[in-house]
């Protein structure tokens, strides 16, 4: 369930509509951890009917590995590598360890990424989503930002989600993702935790949330599960608060545990 986010959803809807009409654009979603950026990426994917979807995510432990994130994004289209102009094909092939050679020219790698995305989008519109962009290796960030600035008449939408975008993304359109307002936070919490809670406990949990949750599944959520990562589920600190509070002990506490852990 995606709660509110009217401004952010409108920005994503406009981006996707533009790509559908053949005008490529990029957007950077910026916001603190757990604010709902990944949920918005999922909304964009669900909204992009008829699009081909490719995705990647920055990995902190791979930040020193040149082109690691770019490889994630391009793997589904590497069967098209031979269609690229020779210098671009060679540069991207070397970057991905598919060909021998000296370190590739970053300009040619950026052009190769742009050409590859354009080739894929020639069949149907393309949506590229990159989560945790603050952890992209520098070479990947440079190549993707280079392509993002040159989509122009390509039916491609490119969305980055980041806590604080790197300098490579300066100048790209940006949408700040902020916490939910009090009314929406209460509605979200009420839809998630359907057990009796006294007012003091409820207010304390809402204060801990600080509007940082934009989407939660109605089913079970386990720590580390994919759904929890995508939705920014309740933090262990908040879950612990529910378990330890007087209003959730006994039967209510057991019911709350079933919902939270």
Structural class call reads alpha/beta
What does the main sheet amount to? 5 strands, parallel
The arrangement of helices and strands along the chain is HEHEHHHEHEEHHHHH
Taking pLDDT < 50 over at least 5 consecutive residues as the criterion, the unreliable ranges are 214-261
- CATH architecture field of the largest domain: 3-Layer(aba) Sandwich
- The overall average pLDDT, rounded, is 80
Give helix % range. 40-55%
Please explain how this structure is put together.
- The chain is 45% helix and 11% strand.
- Mean pLDDT is 80; it is low at 214-261.
- It folds into two domains: 6-176, Rossmann fold (3-Layer(aba) Sandwich); 182-260, no CATH class.
- The protein is an alpha/beta fold and 261 residues long.
- It is built from eleven helices and five strands, in the order αβαβαααβαββααααα.
- The chain is elongated, with a radius of gyration of 21 Å.
- It has a five-stranded parallel beta sheet with strand order 2-3-4-1-5, with helices on both faces.
């Amino acid at each position: 369930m995606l709660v509110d986010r009217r401004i952010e959803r409108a920005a994503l809807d406009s981006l996707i509509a533009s790509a559908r009409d053949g005008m490529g654009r990029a957007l950077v979603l910026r916001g603190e951890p757990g604010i709902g950026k990944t949920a918005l990426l999922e909304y964009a994917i669900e909204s992009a009917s008829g699009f081909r979807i490719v995705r990647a995510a920055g990995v902190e432990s791979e930040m020193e590995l040149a082109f690691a994130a770019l490889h994630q994004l391009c793997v589904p289209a590497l069967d098209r590598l031979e269609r690229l102009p020779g210098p671009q094909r060679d540069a991207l092939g070397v970057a991905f360890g598919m060909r021998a050679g000296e370190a590739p020219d970053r300009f040619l790698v950026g052009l190769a990424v742009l050409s590859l995305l354009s080739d894929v989008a020639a069949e149907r519109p393309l949506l590229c989503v990159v989560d945790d962009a603050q952890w992209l290796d520098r070479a990947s960030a440079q190549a993707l930002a280079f392509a993002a600035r040159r989509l122009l008449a390509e039916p491609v939408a490119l969305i980055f989600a980041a806590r604080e975008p790197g300098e490579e993304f300066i100048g790209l359109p940006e949408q700040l993702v902020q916490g939910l307002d009090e009314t929406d936070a209460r509605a979200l919490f009420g839809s998630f935790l359907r057990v009796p809670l006294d007012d003091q406990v409820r207010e304390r949990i809402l204060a801990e949330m600080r509007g940082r949750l934009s989407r939660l599944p109605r089913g079970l959520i386990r720590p580390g599960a994919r759904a929890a990562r995508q939705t920014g589920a309740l933090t262990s600190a908040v879950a612990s608060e529910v378990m330890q509070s007087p209003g959730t002990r006994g039967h209510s506490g057991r019911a709350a545990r079933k919902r939270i852990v």
